[in-house]
Amino acid sequence: MRIEQRIQQLYKKLLKLGYYPFQVQSIIHFAIGKSDVEAATAADKIKVVNILKDYEKLAYNFSLAYSK
To answer: pTM value?
Structure first.
């Protein structure tokens, strides 16, 4: 899977977990200093994937904790 596809996959997962699109864009901007992932370097894209994965875990754990 290409890194751009992975970013899109994580983006969609975060939306399903309750994040708003502007929140995910803010996370990306915080990670690499810009919201345009297409223009980012390969290293920046890896940072985005890692941070989005962290937020995915956080949201998933939160939903498990409060769905009981």
So the answer is: 0.88
